Amino acid sequence: MMITAEVKTKYYKGTDHHAIYTYYRCTRKSKTIECNDPFTREEALDQQLSELLFTVSLRPDWAKQMMRDVEKDADASAQSVSAIVAEKRNEISLFETKLQRLLDSYLDQDIEKETYRKKKQELVIKKKTLEESIISLQQSQNSWLEPMKEWISGAAGAPSIARGNDLIQKRVLLKKAFGSNLRLTHQKARGSALEPWAALRAAPTSRNYVARKGVEPFLLD
């Protein structure tokens, strides 16, 4: 969040004590351009930021359904990857058989050394490519799963954070949802949410979540 904060101490003579207040003002776009907007009290800004968090929140029933859909997609992806990996391992076995036959032919002096070397190199490269492809598939098959679960949990937990008093939690979630797009101008906090958070801002909570292929929510009036 690119919002300028200033801490001020105020002395109350009647009660003989000091109070510390935090004020915020508009985002400084340039060091040479001063912000002429009046300061905003921390309490007022906190309320506005909480309201922004509500706009990127996910209804509990949507969150539960999306989590179920995510798990289904993960299972389907695992089955698909397993089938592909099995096919590639069969191909690797064929290349290993060809390599053994090639070696036997060379040892039996049926082929020249140079011919053996070239054909062996070709087979080894193809076998290595398949092995690397398997590793890549296994490592990437669920690379999307944890980020998706984290996003669903974060969006579902937004209302609780918005209602709370933990400013650090609010700042962390706002950073995830809005990035550096959050601004304070004319004492009003505003900003455009990042994807996929932006989809939640465009989805009235009165709409229904309809499961479809994949985990992206489909909204109907």
Overview of this protein structure:
The protein has 221 residues and is of the alpha+beta class. The strands form 3 sheets. Strands 1-2-3 form a 3-stranded antiparallel β-sheet. It has a two-stranded antiparallel sheet with strand order 4-5. The two termini are 34 Å apart. The protein contains 6 helices and 7 strands. Strand 1 and strand 2 form a beta hairpin. It has a domain at 76-144. 57% of the residues lie in helices and 14% in strands. Mean pLDDT is 82; it is low at 212-221.
Give the helices and strands as they follow along the chain: EEEHHHHHEEHEE
Our count of helices gives: 6
Number of E-state strands = 7
Question: How far apart lie the N and C ends?
Answer: 34 Å
So what's the overall shape?
elongated
Secondary structure class reads: alpha+beta
Radius of gyration from the alpha-carbon trace, in angstroms? 30 Å
- Classify the beta-strand content into a percent band: 5-15%
What is the mean predicted local confidence, pLDDT? 82
With strands numbered from the N-terminus, the spatial order across the biggest sheet is: 1-2-3
| Low-pLDDT windows of residues | 212-221
Helical content band: 55-70%
How does the major sheet shape up?
3 strands, antiparallel
Give a short synopsis of this structure.
57% of the residues lie in helices and 14% in strands. By secondary structure, the protein is α+β, with helices and mostly antiparallel strands. The longest helix has 48 residues, at 60-107.
